[in-house]
Design brief:
With 512 residues, this protein is mainly alpha-helical. It is built from 26 helices and 2 strands. The chain is globular and about 65 Å long. Pfam families: PPR, PPR_3.
Length: 512
């Protein structure tokens, strides 16, 4: 059953013919109808439930005026105020900090707990989470050191699995495969999680045949596939261009009594159908996806909106957006990003600009990725001045550009063959805080180098290569595979825009 709404957003530039008369859905009831609450299917309405005590400590840590003071200072102050923090509260605080990617604070909370061994017993589940946090905050080598220093009593399938996940997130194939063999020897792979983690590695490396090998191994060893196993396998089959194999995997999934296809399943299939040009089947998957949305989960809406945009169904994009806005009192930045991105993809630039203005009026913080959507469209249409005006507006209102913002400005100058200005903006992109792992699009690198060669500008070429070397791009084999080398200098290439599998892999990684 499709999502329906009784309210229409002010931003919608469509006639009532686009929005059919609302009908009550077995999944979601319009909140504007008195007496028809949203069916939670056993979930709790987090916007109405009483705030637990741990949340006060979490907020103090998360919104510290001086982050350099560290999470320990907040915990110490709470205890001085007479609040004795429990192990359960610590774990809940850490879970919330990880959820919002505040990994440094989460690690500091664990370190505070570790220094109070007389009060808190450290379990292997604690060490597994700490290892994950260390890899995110300090890098994989520090995570390896931490693992080696652990006593044998704290090394089990959880900590081994955490290290395996760290290797996979760093795309360290050889180390991941070696560790998996050790885990097999210790009997730590009797469940699907290690296989799922390795599947994400092979999906990231686009070695889809290895995913099939792991699925066969699981079946040979009578290890049941779970919902993540099937979703990744479906994505792999679709990425290999085989609708038939994907549908066969889906039929096997439906035979499993303990597994019900979820919204991510149908989102994955819709993504692959779109990639393979099967738009009718994609729409069918999207309708099934809508029927799987329950409770207060915002994330499915973002994907439904984006996928309907990819199918080319503007009226469906607006319909789902109205349902989304009628159910939730506030829409996060990611929701606006999905909607504006879809409208741009559909060629509805007026609608995208109107949504952007609406977002400006309700935003809690400047999200450069939203601004980048419009700036990128302006640049592609040769409207560099308009992109620069939007950039200036953001800066004037206190917003900060990310690496992508600076690269968009660089693209504008590349299109106008202004090498010096393009390089200047790329320098800014490399210097942005948090840009450690950022890399420019190979097509932009190639364009600048081609212009340098055409104009005999060796100095600019040297500057660009120096920037790439300083950022570690030249040592990245995967990245450089898209930029063939001539005498040690990248000359051409373009990265694939991706096939939609990133959503599935990200969802699985965040579930670990």
């Amino acid at each position: 059953m499709l999502l329906q709404s009784t309210t229409i957003s002010k931003c919608v530039l469509c006639t009532t013919a686009i929005f059919p008369s609302p009908q009550l859905s077995p999944t979601l009831y319009p909140p504007s109808r008195p007496g028809f609450p949203v069916h939670s299917y056993g979930t709790v309405d987090y916007e109405k439930r009483p705030m637990p005590k741990w949340s006060t400590i979490y907020r103090r840590i998360s919104f510290m005026e001086d982050p350099e003071m560290g999470a320990a200072s907040v915990l110490n102050r709470c205890e001085k105020e007479g609040k004795r923090v429990t192990k359960w509260e610590i774990r809940r605080i850490i879970k919330e900090l990880r959820k919002f990617k505040r990994y440094k604070f989460a690690l500091e909370v664990y370190e505070w707990m570790n220094n109070r061994a007389e009060r808190f017993k450290i379990l292997t589940s604690d060490t597994a989470v700490q290892l994950d946090l260390i890899s995110k905050v300090h890098g994989i080598s520090k995570a390896e050191d931490y693992f080696l220093m652990l006593p044998d009593s704290l090394k089990d399938k959880r900590t081994y699995g955490s290290l395996l996940n760290a290797y996979v997130q760093a795309n360290l194939r050889e180390k991941a495969e070696s560790l998996l063999e050790k885990m097999k020897g210790k009997g730590y792979i009797s469940h699907p999680l290690p296989f799922n983690v390795m599947m994400t590695l092979y999906m990231n490396l686009k070695e889809y045949d290895k995913v099939d090998v792991l699925v066969l191994e699981m079946r040979d060893k009578s290890i049941p596939l779970d919902i993540y196993s099937y979703n990744i396998w479906l994505s792999s089959c679709g990425a290999q261009g085989s609708v038939e194999r994907m549908e066969q995997a889906f039929e096997q999934m439906k035979l499993e009594r303990t597994i019900n296809p979820n919204w991510a399943t149908y989102s994955t299939m819709a993504t692959m159908y779109i990639k393979l040009g099967q738009l009718e089947k994609a729409e069918d998957s999207l309708r099934r996806l809508e029927g799987r949305i329950t409770g207060r989960d915002r994330i499915p809406y973002h994907f439904v909106i984006s996928l309907y945009g990819s199918v080319g169904k503007k009226e469906e994009v607006y319909r789902v957006w109205n349902v989304y806005k009628s159910i939730f009192p506030s829409i996060p930045n990611l929701g606006y990003h999905s909607m504006i991105s879809s409208l741009i993809r559909l060629g509805d630039i007026e609608g995208a600009e109107q949504l952007y203005d609406e977002w400006l009026s309700v935003k809690s913080n400047y999200e450069p990725r939203i601004i980048n959507l419009l700036m990128g469209w302006y640049v592609r249409k040769g409207l560099l001045e308009k992109a620069e005006a939007l950039f200036d507006q953001m800066v004037e209102q206190g917003g900060k550009a990310n690496s992508g913002t600076w690269e968009i400005l660089a693209e504008g100058h590349i299109r106008e063959r202004r090498i010096s200005e393009a390089l200047s903006f790329l320098k800014e992109a490399f210097s942005v805080a948090g840009s450690k792992n950022w890399k420019p699009k190979p097509v932009n690198v190639s364009s600048i180098l081609k212009m340098c060669e055409q104009e005999g500008d060796q100095a600019s070429k040297d500057v660009l290569v120096g920037l790439l070397r300083q950022a570690g791009c030249l040592e990245d084999k995967v990245y450089m595979s898209y930029i063939p080398l001539t005498n040690g200098v990248p000359t051409s290439g373009e990265l694939d825009d991706g096939d939609g599998a990133e959503m599935l892999l990200k969802q699985f990684q965040e579930s670990l």
